[in-house]
Amino acid sequence: MDKTPEQNLKDLSITLNEVSQPIASYVNCVQTGNLLFLSGKGPIKEDKTYVTGKVGKDLTVEQGNEAARLVAIDHIAVLKDELGDLSKVKRIVKAFGMVHCTSDFVDQAKVINGYSDLMFSVFGEKGRHARSAVSMHALPLNFAVEVEVIVEIED
């Protein structure tokens, strides 16, 4: 029998933080039909500070990868808040990953893998998704990464 996403989080020793509130005039999540559109999130640490700086200058690929993993944890917290039960997730459909990096940086995919790998670890095959991983000259609050995601939920 497959483990639930909540069991997988426990096995990974991940405790979901309280959902972080938007930093401007938008909401964390909008539902239309069976799709949830989650707003872009930055990498928030347990102490409520953000991972900031440019990957390739201020941060290594590994630090950027960990920052992307933190965004996944925050998105999972939003899903838990919206749905109550993460088993209602039918599929992580599409992630759009933005990496705040130097102009010569080319390992955006390795950075955003931190997000994608955690989604697979928590949701199994339902966590495999289409994805973009792109460079950004700047991100809000100097975030190292930002990711937005589309999620299909059960009827």
Write the layout of secondary structure elements.
Blueprint: H1 5-11, E1 29-32, E2 35-41, H2 61-83, E3 89-100, H3 108-123, E4 130-136, E5 145-153
Parallel strand pairs: 3-4
Antiparallel strand pairs: 1-2, 2-5, 3-5
Can you walk through the features of this model?
With 155 residues, the chain is α+β, with helices and mostly antiparallel strands. The protein has a single domain, classed as 60s Ribosomal Protein L30, Chain: A (2-Layer Sandwich). It is 30% helix and 25% strand. The protein contains three helices and five strands. The protein has a five-stranded mixed sheet with strand order 1-2-5-3-4, with helices on one face. Strand 3, helix 3 and strand 4 form a beta-alpha-beta unit. Helix 2 runs parallel beside helix 3. The longest helix has 23 residues. The protein starts with a helix and ends with a strand.
